[in-house]
Amino acid sequence: MQNYPEPYPYQHPFPYYYHYIFYVFLVIILIILVICAYIKIRFRFWAMQPVFHIYDLHYYLFPCGIINYELPEKNQYTNFKDIETIQYSKLSDLKLKQFTHFIKQHYLQNGDNQYCPTTKNITGYFTGHNCTSFFSFYYEDELLIDVKTQAQIPNKKIVGVMTTRPIHITINKAKNADATFDAYYVDYLCVDKTRRKQNIAPQVIQSHHYNQRLINKNILVSLFKREGDLTGIVPICVYNTYCFDMNRWAKPPPLLPYVSLIEVGKTNIHHLFDFFRDHNEKFDICILTETANMMHLINSKTIYIYMIIEQGEVICAYFFRRSYTYLKKGTEVLCCFASINCSKNSQLFAHGYKVALWKIYESHTAFKCAAIENISDNDVIVDNILERSRPIIVNPNAYFFYNFAYHTFHPKKVLVIN
């Protein structure tokens, strides 16, 4: 009987583990599709906006910078019947007073927490810019009744507002033409407390952006600041703001004789800008307001800036903002929104903050709560204070671009002076 060779066992063209890799990729794709569907349903408005969505995988690999160079198109959220966008320079005193009244009624109002600015406090942020700023108003028709005659008087009631003002942005890590550009900072986005969750805010944002781009074709990007939910958008950075009760804090001892703490004013602000120029690459992204605007805010005591000088050189800078926010009557919050530390001595830097804070407190004793945004070099200050004090409030914050896609930055590498 003839012997035949044993047949070779069948070998699959791919190793067995390729099946598992295929299933892993399939699961990943399904997860991405589910996330995409959830965001488009849950955040319908933001899903159709030119922002960096968390499911935009190509932006993670190849961030494009400006997303849409063309003028925006009208869509279901543009509302030109009820929404009016006005350049700041063309705003009447009456509209500014109406805006302030609306903000005081509906913006950052929560129980004992009250935001109480004057018209002058608000308009200071829109003064001294080289480009125009914008205000948008969402009006709703209503009928008022004259008490004496019982006659009906037609009136336009404000139910939503939004503003934008120009800022300068430099991305030091970038290697493309979009490394330096101007943008608009979105502020005072507010809807009547009784009309929220009725699609008013999306209409205000969309209509404002459309009108802004139409009037000023040179600025294509906007910058938002949010608390809490990011609506499926990849942020520029995410950080916490800590608020501390100052009532138990004692006056800090003075700085050592070899350094001095100086408040920035018109006679020495050039030293601050020299300091900016020499150390701006310390941060991956710098977002700055116009010089004239910063000077106006300093003169009006809306912001306070202090520098530490050692041997004739600036080594540290601290930036404080008067918030006009009261946690309760007579208790105003003073916010340190940025700092720059070029000293090798972190204890000196943290102590300099405390001395500067106390100088401001002595000139305005209503400041009894100290807020610190944990961004730029403020982490050194926060860590130092947390060793002995517990915050009374911790709020999450984030910045994100509108019509611009870029990677997220570590908050320590982000400087915002605005």
What is the element layout, followed by pairings?
Layout: H1 17-42, H2 44-47, H3 57-61, E1 65-66, E2 83-87, H4 93-106, E3 114-115, H5 119-123, E4 134-145, E5 152-171, E6 180-191, H6 200-215, E7 221-227, E8 237-245, E9 259-263, H7 269-279, E10 285-288, H8 291-299, E11 303-310, E12 313-328, E13 331-341, H9 346-363, E14 367-373, H10 378-386, E15 393-402, E16 404-405, E17 414-417
Parallel strand pairs: 6-7, 10-17, 13-14
Antiparallel strand pairs: 1-16, 2-4, 3-12, 4-5, 5-6, 5-10, 7-15, 8-14, 8-15, 9-11, 11-12, 12-13
Pfam families: NMT
Family: Belongs to the NMT family.
Transmembrane segments: 20-39
What does this entry look like structurally?
Residues 92-224 form the Glycylpeptide N-tetradecanoyltransferase N-terminal domain. This is glycylpeptide N-tetradecanoyltransferase. The chain is 28% helix and 33% strand. By secondary structure, it is α+β, with helices and mostly antiparallel strands. The chain is globular, with a radius of gyration of 26 Å. The termini are far apart. It has helices spanning 17-42, 44-47, 57-61, 93-106, 119-123, 200-215, 269-279, 291-299, 346-363, 378-386; strands at 65-66, 83-87, 114-115, 134-145, 152-171, 180-191, 221-227, 237-245, 259-263, 285-288, 303-310, 313-328, 331-341, 367-373, 393-402, 404-405, 414-417. Helix 9 (346-363) crosses helix 10. The strands form two sheets. It has a 15-stranded mixed sheet that branches. The chain has a two-stranded antiparallel ribbon with strand order 1-16.
